[in-house]
């Protein structure tokens, strides 16, 4: 059905769906290209994640920019959310902040304990010496993998932060309370999508980092039970992060609430 065949109230929601999914589709195509033709040894996937997340964020931001401006007097008072924290999904945001902290700590520890691999590529393996026995295990999330993750996280955080400020700072329409409430709902929905795009930058690398670190730690035979226990504890971290990544992806791709309520 073309937009022109839809009732007038449905058209902005339909347009937003097309723009948001268009950004995600462009991101998926770009991410596939980067992953397929980018650097090897897993770096292509690491580079593809921020490409998709930034494109998805750009789609949400473009949909917000296409939102018709206020039809009447612009209200700049505080009846609608005017601060970023007012539109963020609280529990989801707390979970992602905790996962981001775990990711940074895990990458920092890995960077401090990393060793070159058998081809002298720095930051790819974990090497331990137990008396006369030396064991090396990889892949290990040292700087070889950790540096691109941190750069992507910094860039993606800046892009998503800008999008959230843009969504929050858009003028609030005047009129009746229903129009103001609908506008606030659209802001929260778009902020949730941007937060989910940032969540992909956090949770997907955390799942991979925790999984590979766990495998390396548990495969060392000459270390004590503390190291093996640490490896086991990383498995639920990887599972939670993988679940968060899936939830984030579904949230990015979900139709806006306004479209779902009118379907």
Describe this structure in words.
The protein is mainly alpha-helical. It has one domain. About 70% of the residues lie in helices and about 5% in strands. The chain is built from 8 helices and 5 strands, in the order ααβααβββαβααα. It has helices at about 10-35, 45-65, 85, 90-110, 145-170, 175-220, 225-255, 255-260, and strands at about 75, 115, 125-130, 135, 170-175. The strands form 2 sheets. Strands 2-3-4 form a 3-stranded antiparallel β-sheet. A hairpin with a 2-residue loop joins strand 3 and strand 4. Helix 6 (about 175-220) packs antiparallel against helix 7 (about 225-255). About 35% of the residues are buried. The model is unreliable at about 1-10 and about 75-80 (pLDDT under 50).
| Domain module tally | 1
What is the N-to-C order of secondary-structure elements (H for helix, E for strand)?
A: HHEHHEEEHEHHH
Count of alpha and pi helical runs: 8
**Overall residue-averaged pLDDT value:** 79
What is the total tally of β strands? 5
Low-confidence runs: 1-10, 74-81
Largest sheet: 3 strands, antiparallel
- Fraction in beta strands: 5-15%
């Amino acid at each position: 059905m073309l937009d022109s065949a839809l009732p007038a109230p449905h058209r902005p929601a339909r347009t937003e769906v097309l723009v948001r999914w268009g950004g995600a589709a462009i991101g998926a195509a770009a991410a596939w290209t980067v992953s397929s033709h980018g650097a090897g040894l897993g770096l292509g996937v690491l580079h593809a994640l921020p490409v998709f997340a930034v494109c998805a964020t750009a789609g949400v931001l473009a949909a917000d920019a296409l939102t018709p401006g206020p039809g009447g007097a612009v209200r700049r008072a505080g009846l609608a959310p005017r601060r970023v924290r007012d539109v963020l999904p609280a529990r989801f945001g707390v979970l992602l902040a905790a996962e981001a902290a775990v990711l940074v700590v895990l990458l920092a520890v890995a960077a401090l304990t990393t060793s070159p691999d058998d081809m002298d590529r720095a930051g790819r393996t974990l090497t331990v010496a137990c008396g006369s026995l030396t064991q090396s295990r990889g892949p290990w999330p040292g700087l070889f993998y950790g540096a691109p993750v941190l750069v992507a996280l910094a860039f993606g955080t800046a892009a998503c932060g800008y999008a959230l400020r843009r969504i929050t700072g858009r003028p609030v329409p005047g009129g009746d309370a229903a129009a103001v409430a609908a506008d606030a709902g659209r802001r929260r929905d778009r902020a949730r999508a941007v937060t989910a795009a940032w969540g992909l930058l956090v949770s997907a690398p955390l799942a991979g980092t925790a999984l590979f670190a766990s495998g390396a730690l548990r495969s060392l035979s000459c270390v004590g039970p503390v190291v093996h226990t640490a490896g086991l504890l990383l498995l639920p971290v990887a599972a939670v992060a993988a679940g968060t990544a899936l939830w984030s992806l579904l949230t990015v791709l979900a139709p806006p609430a306004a479209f779902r309520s009118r379907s």
